[in-house]
Here is the input.
Amino acid sequence: MWMQSLGRQLVAAGDRLRAHPLVADALLAGLLAVVSLVVLAYMNRDCTGECRPGDAGAVALVLLQTVPLAWRRRRPLATCVVAGLASAVYGAAPYPDLGLSVPPGGLVALYTAAAWCSRRTSLLIGAAVAVSAATILALPTTNADVVDVALAALALVTAWGLGDRARIQRAWAAALQERAERLERERESDARRAVAEERTRIARELHDVVAHHVSMMVVQAEAGPVVAERDPSRAAGAFDSIAVTGRQALVEMRRLLGVLRGNGDAAPSLAPQPGLAEVPALVEQVGRTGLAVELVVEGQPCPLPAGVDLSAYRIVQEALTNAVRHAGPGRARVLVRYGEHDLELQVSDDGRGAAPSGAAPSGGSGRRGPGDPEGVPRSVGAPSAPPVGQGLVGMRERVNLFGGELHAGPRPEGGFAVAARLPIGGGR
Here is the structure.
């Protein structure tokens, strides 16, 4: 038990020292200074065995070898120069060895240079130390033999090699840390970009929904005076429809604002997204504007993927909105055909007239002129309105999302037609 407690205390002490490198280096310098002075006193003992501290020069050189090591990580090059020169002078002087062929302060200084200086600087310092050591060991006063030379070479190479390895490991750890931080920043950036793109897509979709409701309201309001004059009972129903459409527009507007606010504000409660099941209600709503719409469903209705169901509804909604804008009080036909592997949508109108002047579209860019993309001609005399939606571009994006097909253009017999095919996977 006491061994585990001691181990935990040693680990905690090591963590504290790593958090304060200056303190750790000061402790190392003090320890080496004390040990070196004790060894110097022991090696200076007289013939009776009594230890002597040595003269002032030897003590000063020992302190110059060890005390500067307290700043070895802050000033590695200066520390190496001071401690290295002191070690060289001590080795050349007639002072006793400090237990090794090379003073320990000089070895730690060489390790520091290799660990904290650049590779080029550490190589130059290593070469200078090697030349100095060889010169000092060759002096007659050192009385060095082959064993002393081998031990000195081994000590110097080991100190430089360990320092160089520490530098490489520290650089590798820093590179890994920098890479991890960069990946984290990229991951956060990708997440923010994905959220922004999703919010843009949802906002665009809700924008088209709101524009559709507003378009219906405008058309019904402009037709209201005429209907009130000819059929007052029908006018009351038109105003009720305007109220219902206005409430729906407000709900969708709250949804849109919730998307634009982001995560910082409370999101509004959202109802389920519409699908083909709501197409009859949509047809009835459009019919109140004066455009007679016929809904035809062929095939056996089946559950659709949520994305396909929503996209199909939006395509029909967009096409009917364009029909209200350009076909006027004519006739339109909506065909929904359930196939075994795909869903076909066709929305066509006879194009006999135009909506009342100033009617705004619901998210539709309208029919295009000869210079517009896809070469779909814009109906002559269509009322001018600001581009409030995505129109045929939005339809095409929805169809391409599922790998389907979209055809839009004028009919030979007059009017305009939109035909879309959406894959729905395997059989029902």
Notes: The beta strands are 292-298, 331-338, 342-349, 405-410, 416-423. Residues 264-270, 353-389 have pLDDT under 50 and may be disordered. Residues 18-144 form one domain.
